[in-house]
Amino acid sequence: MTASTFEQVRDIASDIFSVPADKITAASSPETIENWDSMQHLNLVLAVEEKFGVQLDPEDIEKMKNIGAVAALVDKLQAAGR
Amino acid sequence: MSDLESNSSAGDRHPSNLRVEIDRLIGEGAFEAAARRLAELWRRDPASGTASFVTARIDQLGDKLSLTKFRVAILRSFTVEPMVPLLRAEAFAHGIDLAVHVGDFNTYVQDIIDASSSLYRFAPNAVILAVRADEAAPELWRDFADLTPEAAQAAAERVAGGYEQRISTFRKHSQAALIVHALERPPAPALGVLDDQSESGQSGLIHRINGELRRIASGFRGVYMLDYDALVARHGSKQWHDERKWLTARLPIAAPHLLDMAREWMRFIVPLSGRASKVLVVDLDNTLWGGVIGEDGMAGIQVGAEYPGAAYQALQRALLDLSRKGILLAVCSKNNQDDAMEALEKHPGMLTRAKHFAALRINWTDKAQNLREIAQELNVGLDSLAFLDDNPFEREQVRASLPEVSVIDLPKNPLQYAETVRNFAGFERLTLSSEDRQRTELYAAQKERSTAEQTFQSKEDFFRFLEQEAELEPVTGLTLARVAQLTQKTNQFNLTTRRYSEAQIAELAKQARWHIFSIRVRDRFGDHGLVGVAMAHDEGEQCEIDTFLLSCRVIGRTVETALLAHLAESAAQRGRKRLVGWFLPTKKNAPARDFYEQHGFARQKTTDQGSLWTLDLNESRLRSPEWIKLKVLAEVK
Questions:
Q1: What's the CATH code of the domain at B252?
Q2: Share of chain B above pLDDT 90, in %
Q3: Measuring CA to CA, which residue among B390, B291, B285 is closest to residue B335?
């Protein structure tokens, strides 16, 4: 994942989970972020799609296990032009 | 203009710095400043993540801001949760603190039938019935090709009948406004193009159901249709729909369009909550026409049927449509008055003329001062003004010095001006009274009255000269919409500022102890229309005034005395001994503060809510002024 994608994903996650951005790392996941339930997961997916102009497949969404994985996925989709 | 833009302090503010600043301001207790920054953040970055940030801060700020409270319940057949923060953030930008209740999936029938359901316990001001066609009319949506024409017909009737029953049940339990999503037509009918060759194809029948729904809705007070297909069409059906989210999360709308759905709901919520704008103040150069009149001259400015002038004509057409809905237009422009007036009066391409504007401020004074004067001249609060200007510097100045004014952000491209104005939720109206349609003429007559007033020696001479006629009438089906509208919109001469929906007033009017009057006023200059409302109820020996209000344009002409005198006389005739009424102060209703005292009422008590006043009807000398010709239509109970 690129640094700039990570920072943007981190800022979105900070808004959605109500967690300060500096407390979020690539390893932050539903286990470490209290508000990360299934509804907030959907909100994260939608906010990422909106921000980066990508569309996530259901298979992609399952792979979003932590913030680093989300950023890596965005990079992959943007490279593939999706 | 680019140098002005870079001067604007907001230009340097990055959204993430704004977030830090907002939290700092909240921490310091500077709530109003925090709210302004929060609105700015939302304007600059209206995305899902921002919406979560904004709503979390609104919850912190809570009652510390003077926002209009409004409660909306969404009954739905699909996932709406991701739209809720977007909706609340949009509402906040319109000055509304919106509480949202979301019903369970597809329990809307039970929720409506059960008088003790969570829907009614939530006590909503408005309910959105967001049900998709595949749920509301499954027979017509799936396996349609299996149905005989008769069976399909019967299914369509069943669907419409079901809606009628649910709406009528809803009305028995709640007076809240109801916004019903019309059914969407299938994007790919089962029979392809063959479907469109008959009236009773899939599309034809859904279309017919929607026609029925419109008819049914118009038979109820406060039930409104939302044309979901038209909304989708504006954005493109293929872009709007997200099949993956629909199949995995029951969310049919693609991420970039969730905000569009929320904004469509706002077009109902803003007028329902009384936050609609009453006046649109427009700039001239590069807003109403292209170019600068003082430099380019009559021959140089762009406005006409051809591009690029056509963009400005399109905006002018949108403005004229607003004035037909009762929204007043005004001009605020930095210009030489003669140059600007010549273009307004004589340019062949102009559709809006000087006569269409209720107030004109063409000078070199700063715009905030001009806006204050316009509000004063038109007798409206600053929060009733919307401001349209192509210059970001002027917009920022107005935002900074007059935060109450709704400032509309014009896009850079003039081709988008008209659409921006038409989409502004503050200009939506859900009902239209005859007063709304004639408002511009009413204000023109008002100008003549003010001129006349200055030439008289005494107030009484002026009142006699006016030849006022007032007609008092119990509320009827014909006046209900206007009466409700006045309770929702009147802020200044309003003793209790209690807001009522049409349905609530209709309900009260049915009760024998309630007496609801409207007053209509005419004078030698013209008809003011229906301008005042009084609502009172008998309680034992006394009659209590629940609501007493008058539109600003007739205040101080003694019409208020005539209306109060009638309340007193009719209460005495019904055998009441006292007439009592509260004055509940707000930020705006100072003009009504001394009203009871001036009319011989005695102060009975004072609480932190306000003061209670009482008039002994046996000793009262309250009479309608002799210079008003009064016509009273009797109540039929």
A1: 3.40.50.1110
A2: 79
A3: B285
Contacts of B22 in chain A (CB under 8 A): none
Q: Which of B368, B403, B425 is the last residue of a domain?
A: B425
- B244 to A18: CB separation less than 8 angstroms, yes or no: no
Q: Domain with B410 in it: what CATH number?
A: 3.40.50.1000
Are B48 and A43 in contact (CB < 8 Å)? yes
Dig out the tokens for B602 from the structure.
Answer: 């005695």
pLDDT at B16: 79
Tell me, what CATH number does A54's domain have? Answer: 1.10.1200.10
Distance from CA of A77 to the nearest CA of B (A): 16
The answer to whether the CB of B140 falls within 8 A of the CB of B202 is yes
Q: Mind telling me how many Å the CA of A46 is from chain B's nearest CA?
A: 5
| Chain B residues with a Cβ under 8 Å from any Cβ in chain A | 16, 47-50, 52-53, 56, 79, 81-82, 85, 242, 244, 247-249, 251, 254-256, 258
Number of domains in chain A: 1
Contacts of A52 in chain B (CB under 8 A): none
pLDDT digits (tens, 9 = 90+) for A37-68: 989 999 999 999 999 999 898 888 888 899 99
Provide the domain limits for residue A60.
3-80
Identify the residue among A9, A36, A41, A43 best suited for mutation to test binding to B, counting B beta carbons within 10 A and taking the highest.
A43
Token pair 């100008």 is found at B447
Cα gap B43→B51, rounded to integer Å:
11
Q: Which amino acid is at B228?
A: Y
Q: What is the pLDDT of residue B15?
A: 79
Please choose, from the candidates B187, B171, B176, B59, the residue with its C-alpha nearest in 3D space to the C-alpha of residue B124: B176
Based on the domain organization, do B93 and B42 belong to the same domain?
A: no
User: Are B247 and B117 part of one and the same domain?
Assistant: yes
**ipTM surpassing 0.90, yes or no?**
yes
* pLDDT over 50 (residue B42): yes
* Residue whose tokens read 């909100």: A43
Kind and range of the H or E run holding B371: helix B367-377
Which of A33, A42, A46 has the highest number of chain B CBs within 10 A, making it the mutation to test binding with B? Answer: A46
Q: Give the CATH number, domain containing residue B609.
A: 3.40.630.30
- Domain enclosing residue B90, as ranges: 67-272
Q: Is A12 near chain B, with CB under 8 Å?
A: yes
What pLDDT, on the 0 to 100 scale, is given for residue B9?
Answer: 45
User: Of B98, B168, B417, which is closest to residue B286 (Cα–Cα)?
Assistant: B417
pLDDT digits (tens, 9 = 90+) for B389-398: 999 989 999 9
Whether residue B100 is found in the same domain as residue B225: yes
- In the prediction, which pLDDT does B3 show? 37
Asked whether B469 and B629 are in contact (CB, 8 A), the reply is yes
Sorting pLDDT into bands at 50, 70 and 90, what band is B637?
A: low
For chain B, the domain total comes to: 4
pLDDT band at B8 (very low <50, low <70, confident <90, very high): very low
For residue B258, which residues of chain A lie inside 8 Å, CB to CB?
46, 50
Query: Which of B16, B47, B244 lies nearest to residue A47, judging by beta carbons?
Result: B47
pTM of the model: 0.78
Confidence at residue B6, expressed as pLDDT on a 0 to 100 scale: 37
Is B440 among the domain residues?
Answer: no
* Contact state of A42 with B82 under an 8 Å Cβ cutoff: yes
Handedness of CA A48, A52, A58, A60 (dihedral sign): negative
Which of residues B272, B296, B319 is at a domain's end?
B272
Cross-chain Cβ contact A15/B248 below 8 Å: no
Give B244's contacts in chain A (Cβ within 8 Å).
55-58
User: pLDDT value at position B367?
Assistant: 95
Note whether B301 and B264 are same-domain residues. no
CA distance A35 to A22: 16
**Domain co-membership, B261 together with B300:** no
* Whether residue B484 is found in the same domain as residue B623: yes
Chain mean pLDDT for chain B: 91
State the average pLDDT over residues B576-605.
93
